[in-house]
User: Which sequence fits this backbone?
């Protein structure tokens, strides 16, 4: 096995390095879990149609989305190069992946090592290589994209990972691709990138996911719930818990990225990509429990305004309704999600957290603040039973007082 690695120098040089790990290929696993007497079978053996081979550059590609995307592209016969700083292994063998697939992918994936913010290196190395298509998975600012476009004047397509977080908060939901955007959002750099791509006249496609989940997820979406379920702790959820949100599985997202490649219908278009159904915060807690085979969770609601959590986040989602229509992707691209929510969460659990792997260790410090106050303010109840008034400070310490009639 070998990978072509470009070492960042004034003049790009090439060296052969051994491959140490391998990216996940979406292979079906044989593990099963029981959910109400139904045998769960993991999905995600992603099938893609063949297309003419392209020389493809992925900006990023070793953490989450790019791991799945690069697998599919290599399987289609494309020559795929990952542009990274080289701080993480380019490939890693994951559960369910055969040794043969591991060796095959590792022998074909290429690596261009460098810092995308070193704009002169980006221009020189990319122009020397030449690429037909760029998948920009980790771009955040427009200034990071312009050197890539300058280096590749004959680029056939620029496929950009944006975010549904660019939409202006609204009382009218779901968000559609034509909805107003928020130039002050924390994703404003992605909006500016979309504007740059338009102004440059290149053939571009922008994908706007909502919340992404699945194996290898570095954003603690499902992992946050799994930590608490495994520890047998209550799930603290802000306010009423009926806030509606939306999750999309990373493998479904990878397939959407494949379906826009070379697709004339995707030219200069934006697509929302996520799951088919929306879910409440409380419903998500219950879905995570089902996916991992845990009992029905105890849910505690709290008012975030009553606490000072410092720089820590007490909940992994924005405290609002937030979901988007995926009708355009379904009608224009012929794409649709393969995973429903519980199946997708089970896929994530079985391939990752359930095997003892996760990105961040459990931190229940904010939970303890919430639960501590909850005991004081919410656990007191008064129950009237004929001649008794029963005060409950907690289920473990009932205090009874007899009332004289």
Assistant:
């Amino acid at each position: 096995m070998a990978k072509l690695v470009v070492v960042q120098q004034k003049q790009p040089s090439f060296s052969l390095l051994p491959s140490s790990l391998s990216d996940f290929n979406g292979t079906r696993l044989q593990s099963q879990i029981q959910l109400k007497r139904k045998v769960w079978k993991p999905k995600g053996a992603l099938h893609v149609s063949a297309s003419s081979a392209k020389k493809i550059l992925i900006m990023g590609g070793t953490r989450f989305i790019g791991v799945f995307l690069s697998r599919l592209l290599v399987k289609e016969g494309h020559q795929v190069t990952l542009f990274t700083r080289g701080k993480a292994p380019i490939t890693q063998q994951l559960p369910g992946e055969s040794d043969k697939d591991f060796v095959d992918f590792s022998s074909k994936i290429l690596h261009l090592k460098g810092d995308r913010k070193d704009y002169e290196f980006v221009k020189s190395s990319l122009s020397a290589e030449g690429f037909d298509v760029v998948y920009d998975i980790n771009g955040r600012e427009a200034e990071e994209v312009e050197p890539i476009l300058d280096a590749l004047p004959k680029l056939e397509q620029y496929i950009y990972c944006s975010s549904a977080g660019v939409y202006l908060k609204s009382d009218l939901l779901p968000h559609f691709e034509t909805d107003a955007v928020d130039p002050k959002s924390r994703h404003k750099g992605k909006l500016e990138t979309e504007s740059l791509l338009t102004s440059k006249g290149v053939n571009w496609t922008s994908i706007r996911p909502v919340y992404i989940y699945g194996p290898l997820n570095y954003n603690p979406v499902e992992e946050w719930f799994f930590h608490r379920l495994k520890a047998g702790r209550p799930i603290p959820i802000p306010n009423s818990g009926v806030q509606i949100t939306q999750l999309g599985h990373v493998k479904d997202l990878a397939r959407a990225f494949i379906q826009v490649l070379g697709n004339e219908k995707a030219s200069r278009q934006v697509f929302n990509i996520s799951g088919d159904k929306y879910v409440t915060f409380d419903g998500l807690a219950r879905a995570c429990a089902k996916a991992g085979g845990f009992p029905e969770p105890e849910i505690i609601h709290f008012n975030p305004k009553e606490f000072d959590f410092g720089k820590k986040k007490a909940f992994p989602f924005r405290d609002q309704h937030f979901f988007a229509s995926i009708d355009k992707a379904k009608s224009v691209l012929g794409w649709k999600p393969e995973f429903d929510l519980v199946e997708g969460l089970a896929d994530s659990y079985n391939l990752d957290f359930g095997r003892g792997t996760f990105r961040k260790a459990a931190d229940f410090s904010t939970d303890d603040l919430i639960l501590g106050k909850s005991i004081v303010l919410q656990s007191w109840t008064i129950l009237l039973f004929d001649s008794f008034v029963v005060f409950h400070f907690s289920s473990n310490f009932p205090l009874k007082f007899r009332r004289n009639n």
